[in-house]
Amino acid sequence: MEHRTNDKGRACQPGGASLRPVLAAPGRGRWAPEALYAFLAEQGIAYERIDHPAVFTAQEAERLVPKARGAHAKNLLVEDRKDGRLFMLSVPFGKRTDLAATARSLGTGKLRFASAETMQETLGITPGAVSMLALVNDQARRVNLVLDRVLSEAEALQCHPLVNTATLVIDQGGLRKFLDAIEHVPRVQELPAAK
Fold it and tell me: Could you give phi then psi for residue 181, rounded to 5 degrees?
């Protein structure tokens, strides 16, 4: 794939149209981890990378991902059963989320977990790789990020970089800079815990 830049050094498509950084798959609009790493570097966002076996659940991640600084987040992609609105709920690892109470707090209808197909279509990822970094693929801005207040106050967060075989530790300031760059403003609130 040819990498092109505009006069400001930003990645662009053939013909000069600005593109938020270089995409991994022309025409599909999906990023590969390498493109994400390049974007983080371009934005001046530091991270620590930890490679590990594939993990599909928070419990597997707790067991298989080497210990690192930063809060370990559990990210749930859910949708409103009535209107199809999508939400990424980002909560501390050990918190069980009450979806009915969360729906009430968000002012939505009943919430259900999004399908693997929806996850692939909107975020370009497979189950096990859900993280705030996957929002880079949500160019249509369909996914509403809801960040638990505890995570918003953490010094750093652990996030999968579009795959479930690595984890990046990113300081809170870097994560906010990333979300600003991709134009995803999180809604910060205390997400209701299951009883």
Answer: -65, -35
CA–CA dist 153, 149 (Å, integer): 6
Q: What is the pLDDT of residues 66-78, one digit of tens each?
A: 788 999 899 999 9
* Answer CATH for 46-188 from 3.40.630.30, 3.30.1310.10, 3.90.960.10, 3.30.565.10: 3.90.960.10
Q: What is the DSSP string of 18-67?
A: B-SS--SBTTTTB--HHHHHHHHHHTT---EEEE-S---SHHHHHHHSPP
Residue 188 makes CB contacts below 8 A (sequence gap 6+) with: 147, 148, 149, 152
Quick check: pTM over 0.90? no
